[in-house]
Amino acid sequence: MACLVVVVVGLVEGVAEAAAVVEGLGVNWGTMASHQMLPEMVVRMMRDNGIKRVKIFDADPWTLKSLEGSEMEVMVAIPNDMLGIMQSYESAKEWVDKNVTRYTHPGGVNIRYVAVGNEAFLKAYKGRFMNTTFPALQNIQKALNEAGHGHNIKVTTPLNADVYNSPDSNPVPSAGTFRSDIQSLMTDIVQFLDGNSSPFVVNIYPFLSLNQNPNFPIDFAFFDGGATPLNDNGVAYNNVFDANYDTLVHALRKAGVPNMKIVVGEVGWPTDGVNFANISFAKRFYDGFLKKMASGKGTPLRPGNLDVYLFGLIDEDQKSVLPGDFERHWGIFRYDGQPKFPIDLSGGGNNRYLVPAKGVQYVGNLWCVFNKNVKNQKKLKQLGGQVSYACTLADCTALNYGGSCNGLDQQGNVSYAFNQYFQFQDQDVEACSFKGLGVVTKVNASSGGCLFPVQIVSGSARAAAHVSFLLLLWLVVVVLTV
């Protein structure tokens, strides 16, 4: 097993002058990865790129500690599996004290929102969180008010765009209403949120519209023209984002809150795993969307600046692929903090790469590939089982149809699967055995647009190494002073 001792010093200090970012832009920072960078490193990367707003999916102490003193606006979250606990007001108070009040001091964390749940009313959940979300919202809001945070920190609940729709018989924004099965509940929720000056947070994904509907017009998912406009009583919609957003505006009007603030909690484009999820389309989407944000035109019903969090910041190789094999590839940065493609967060259209993460350390320049010297047919017949084993634990979604590694030959497919598992296991030599079918090499096996990655030293391993070093140093000092 590879071992590396490092000392982590000053990862946030000394940040270079940040790049310009369009007004209203933030990012989602997900952490469902097998090997995460140090949180301090991620914060520095965001600051180096001028990002001043971040949305996270929990209230992890290590993450929040890394955001102290950064002045970044932060949205913390209560996961869906905690909504039941928040039915107790005492539990809500305890959560606010531990995860909000604890960090809201001079030089602390600039928490602006508390997200209660995430897409809790997805149809796929079959009503699982229907009875717990609103009471949790009410209790957290009450706890924030009691703790003196209610004026500056707003409660909300990010929802998927499937909570509203237009009928198939009249698929235009002006026909939009909240879904019939939750219409009464949604009306109560939005009136409660609006009464507390809290926003409606919605996740809108043009990619999903394209990916899920074989008849969807490709150009309508983007912002560079070419699509046949959707006419809604004289209002022309040239892209699905605007149409979706304004469908929500109509639903809010019908629910009695016509001026409620809208925040786009997630919007983005994945870069691998399925057809349409690639670098070319992602760049096209972000170029158009960021120019749209910079224009300040908004949508036909809501002209002006948009309030948006891009999804997402970094790839997450442990996300569930039940929604699709693209789920692990939403990042504008790779797993190691390297930018995937040129993107101008100012919306100016400049073809430049983002500033990569600094101080990333890799386990070693080693790869695991198929051993071409194996000729034994009995062994070769085990290849399928070994590849399946590797891909059950490691991420092989780039091998799928439409993926960046889909063009590899059979041996290349095997090598990619073996290497993914090998890197997942921190390049442990035993993880490249595969019953003698794998071999470790120092030759980079990447081919064309297919990256054979090299694993990074995870943040937790680096932190543990730092603690071990300090403990060793302390023991040396003790011994020398005896």
TrEMBL record:
<dbReference type="InterPro" id="IPR044965">
    <property type="entry name" value="Glyco_hydro_17_plant"/>
</dbReference>
<dbReference type="GO" id="GO:0005975">
    <property type="term" value="P:carbohydrate metabolic process"/>
</dbReference>
<keyword id="KW-0326">Glycosidase</keyword>
<dbReference type="InterPro" id="IPR017853">
    <property type="entry name" value="GH"/>
</dbReference>
<keyword id="KW-1015">Disulfide bond</keyword>
<dbReference type="Pfam" id="PF07983">
    <property type="entry name" value="X8"/>
</dbReference>
<dbReference type="InterPro" id="IPR012946">
    <property type="entry name" value="X8"/>
</dbReference>
<protein>
    <recommendedName>
        <fullName>glucan endo-1,3-beta-D-glucosidase</fullName>
        <ecNumber>3.2.1.39</ecNumber>
    </recommendedName>
</protein>
<dbReference type="GO" id="GO:0005886">
    <property type="term" value="C:plasma membrane"/>
</dbReference>
<keyword id="KW-0611">Plant defense</keyword>
<feature type="domain" description="X8">
    <location>
        <begin position="366"/>
        <end position="452"/>
    </location>
</feature>
<comment type="similarity">
    <text>Belongs to the glycosyl hydrolase 17 family.</text>
</comment>
<keyword id="KW-0336">GPI-anchor</keyword>
<keyword id="KW-0378">Hydrolase</keyword>
<keyword id="KW-0325">Glycoprotein</keyword>
<keyword id="KW-0472">Membrane</keyword>
<keyword id="KW-0449">Lipoprotein</keyword>
<dbReference type="Pfam" id="PF00332">
    <property type="entry name" value="Glyco_hydro_17"/>
</dbReference>
<dbReference type="GO" id="GO:0042973">
    <property type="term" value="F:glucan endo-1,3-beta-D-glucosidase activity"/>
</dbReference>
<dbReference type="GO" id="GO:0098552">
    <property type="term" value="C:side of membrane"/>
</dbReference>
<dbReference type="InterPro" id="IPR000490">
    <property type="entry name" value="Glyco_hydro_17"/>
</dbReference>
<dbReference type="GO" id="GO:0006952">
    <property type="term" value="P:defense response"/>
</dbReference>
<feature type="signal peptide">
    <location>
        <begin position="1"/>
        <end position="18"/>
    </location>
</feature>
<keyword id="KW-1003">Cell membrane</keyword>
<keyword id="KW-0732">Signal</keyword>
